[in-house]
Amino acid sequence: MKKFYISFALTLCSIALFGQCLLQTQHSNCTCCNVCNGTAQAFFGGTSPYTYLWMPGSKTTQSVTGLCAGTYTVTCTDANACSRTAAVTITQPTCVNAIASAQASSSCSNCNGILTGTASGGNAPYTYLWSNGCNQQTCTGVCAGTYTFTVTDINGCTATTTVNVGGPTPPTVTVTTTSSTATAIPSGSSPFTYIWSTSPPQTTQTATGLAPGTYTVCVTDVNNCTTCKTCQIVASGIANYSASINLNVYPNPAGENIFVEAALEKAQTVNISITNVLGELLYSENVAAPTALSRKIFVGDITKGIYFVRLTTSAGSSTKKITIQ
Fold first, then answer.
1. What's the fold here for domain 241-324?
2. Alpha helical stretches, state H, the chain
3. Could you tell me the pTM of the whole model?
4. 54 forms bridges with which residues in the sheet?
């Protein structure tokens, strides 16, 4: 009978210990797809102190954080070597997906493209943001270019995609010139319109009656796309040329003064002149020079631009083009 009571007491003790050696867990899932921010915690009912082992990861704390989606096991052991194992499954929502489409802009001067975006996955409701600042699913009045579309769900999970809004290509323009005309040669979507920087403005493909100088033509195609091109008309006979005179003009570009130097065949009176690109005479001086000419000329009162310095001698003339800054 004594052995019976001892055995009965040990059985009750074992049942009591087993009842205390309970393992429970709680967890929080990942808030976004492919974001490892899940957590798990174990609660053990045995006799402290306890040891914990989480797998995979081999962490030995009661709580673990930074968990990716997946299944984890925790093994807890108390001071009496009572051990229990439990499994925890961390889930994640479906990934947020951003889809964008575009309708091309049909005009260069009037941006009329359209952006359209949709979202799926994650947890609605969603917010939308385009890289041009539009925060609607559909945006109108969009110019040609590349745009980024970002979708954010209620948990702050995001997805991004890009889309290109097409548009017409501006025309390409080349310009050919003669001594008094300039012709614009465009390629692209015809018909074209022209406007030249003449006074009054000429609106034909070829500008005529041009004096020496710089001109700009702007060509506009059927889609209101415009390209501007600059050309220069040089007066006939005004260029860098030389007879038998070794003319040197410096500095070039010039500031307030220029120096005119030349080696002459003999002592003589020479003429030094300065003209602009229109052929207008701005400066003229006759100088009695020995065989070596050296003359300093003040040009600080001349407007910045391109000019021509000409030296005329008994042997002919020589011209140098200079820039006054």
1. Immunoglobulin-like (2.60.40)
2. 2-20
3. 0.52
4. 59, 74
Burial state string for 211-245 with b = 16 or more CB within 10 A and e = fewer than 16: ebbebebbbbbebebbbebebebebeebeeeeeeb
Cα 293 to Cα 262: distance, rounded to the nearest angstrom: 5
Cα R_g (the chain), whole angstroms? 44
Pairing of strands 23-28, 38-44: antiparallel
What is the C-alpha separation between 237 and 251, in angstroms, rounded?
23
- Residue 232 above 80 pLDDT? yes
Quote the CA–CA distance of 160 and 149 in Å, as a whole number.
Answer: 6
| Pairwise CA distance, residues 234 & 307, whole Å | 11
The β-bridge relationship of strands 113-120 and 97-103 is antiparallel
Domain ranges for the chain, please list them: 33-92, 97-165, 172-233, 241-324
pLDDT score of 279: 67
User: Which position has the higher pLDDT, 158 or 322?
Assistant: 158
Q: Which distant-in-sequence residues (6+ apart) come within 8 Å of 18 by Cβ?
A: 82
The kind and range of the H/E element at 306 are: strand 305-313
pLDDT digits (tens, 9 = 90+) for 241-261: 444 577 889 998 888 999 999
Predicted pLDDT at 33: 93
Q: Report how far residue 124's alpha carbon sits from residue 120's, in angstroms, rounded to the nearest whole number.
A: 8
CATH 3.40.50 describes domain 97-165: no
**Per-residue pLDDT, 236:** 60
- Answer positive or negative: Cα dihedral of 227, 230, 236, 241: negative
Structural contact between residues 47 and 78, judged by C-beta atoms closer than 8 angstroms: yes
Residues with Cβ within 8 Å of 290's Cβ and at least 6 positions away in sequence, in order, are: 264, 267
E-strand stretches of 1-152: 23-28, 38-44, 51-55, 63-67, 70-77, 83-90, 97-103, 113-120, 127-130, 138-142, 145-152
Average pLDDT, integer, range 206-234: 87
Q: Are 76 and 46 in contact (CB under 8 A)?
A: yes
Contact yes or no for 115/100 (Cβ under 8 A): yes
